[in-house]
Amino acid sequence: MPTSPSLNLTSGLLLVLLALVWGGSFFFAEVALSELPPLSVTLFRVALAVPVLFLVTRVKAIPIPREPGIWGAYLGMGALNNALPFSLIFWGQTEIEGGLASILNGTTAMFGAVVAGLLLKDEPLTPQKLIGAVLGFLGVAVIMGSAALTSLDPRSLAQIAILAAALSYAFASVWGKLFLAGQPPLMNALGMIVGSTVLMLPLSLYVDGVPRHDLSISVWGALIGIAVLSTALAYLLYFEILRLAGAANLMLVTLLIPPVAITLGALFLGELLTQEAFWGFAIIALGLVVTDGRLLRRILRRRAV
After folding, report:
1. Which residues of 121-139 are buried (b: 16+ CB within 10 A; e: fewer)?
2. Which end of the chain, N or C, is more open, meaning fewer C-beta atoms within 10 Å of its C-beta?
3. Residue 7: how many CB atoms within 10 A of its CB?
4. Is 22 among the domain residues?
5. How many separate domains does the chain show?
6. Which domain holds residue 209?
């Protein structure tokens, strides 16, 4: 019976590095948003990542597909996994802290389990996944508070936008499995980044006009960081960890991203989160543990011995 991939020192270090660069995206966005509107930040993020990923695919001699259908699938993947969620998250960060956005974004795994369970026959929606999703939504309710049910102020709308981004990521996962499973992973990364750039260029130009270039050094640094580190490098790390440790272990990065984003926001931007945000994160983390199921199975096995 084949064993599932496990974390070792190499894959564990790569997982921490992935958490750093993905957690850093919320910090980089906060800096970039000080001088640019959300759609322009999204455009810079995907457009600047294209040449990096293109160079990697050329070095690895990965063939570029010519079929229009595949590029149509990349366009859809770019919309669901980049253009829409990045834009929603960046708009949300104009009203809430990056650390809080990263916590709410942690619901992606629970959304993903539910959406896959509803749309994919080989990933059934089990009671365990439903309990994990309920815990995730409970954590969100704790963070947003009862006031969000009676009044939709900009802060509440921003939190809803982050949740919508998490839902978009969940649909992107299903889209990729349905339409792009047979393509090389790195080509999928390049294809969806190209697709999202094609989508964001006219949208950003229409809404924001020609992006500014007279930006401060710190903002240019943030844009390069979010494109090269938090997007291009992140995808390279993602697929390497997936190869070494498997999808189940890769999901652990969801627990590591918020502490990174919260720490960077506190150290460099003076952001402080409420006690409710930390309680909510704890409940969302518990929901992720339940969705994953491995820890619960270990506890049950130990009790059975």
Report:
1. eebebeeebbbbbebbbeb
2. N
3. 18
4. yes
5. 1
6. 9-122+153-271
125-139 pLDDT, tens per residue? 889 899 999 999 999
* Burial bucket for residue 220 (CB in 10 Å: 0-12, 13-18, 19+): middle
pLDDT tens for each residue of 155-168: 999 999 999 999 99
Q: How far is CA 296 from CA 88, 121, 258, in A?
A: 34, 24, 23
In a domain, 74, yes or no: yes
- Angle (CA) 22 24 30, round 5°: 125
d(CA 20, CA 8): 18
Q: Say how far apart CA 69 and CA 48 lie, in whole Å.
A: 25
How do residues 215-227 score in pLDDT, each as one tens digit? 999 999 999 999 9
Spatial neighbors of 93 by CB under 8 A, at least 6 apart, are: 26, 29, 30, 33, 38, 101, 158
With tokens 């600047």, the residue in question is 48
Burial 175-207 (b: 16+ CB within 10 A, else e): bbeebbeebbbbbbbbbbbbbbbbbbeeebeee
d(CA 90, CA 224): 16
Residue 205 lies in a domain: yes
Residue found under tokens 């704790």 = 142
Is 297 within a domain?
no
Q: What are phi and psi of 95, to 5 degrees?
A: -120, -25
Structure tokens at 103: 């916590």
DSSP code per residue over 20-51: HHHHHHHHHHHHHTTTS-HHHHHHHHHHHHHH
- Which spans in the chain are helix H? 9-32, 38-59, 68-78, 84-92, 98-105, 108-119, 127-144, 147-150, 154-179, 185-208, 217-224, 234-250, 253-268, 275-292, 294-304
pTM (2 d.p.): 0.93
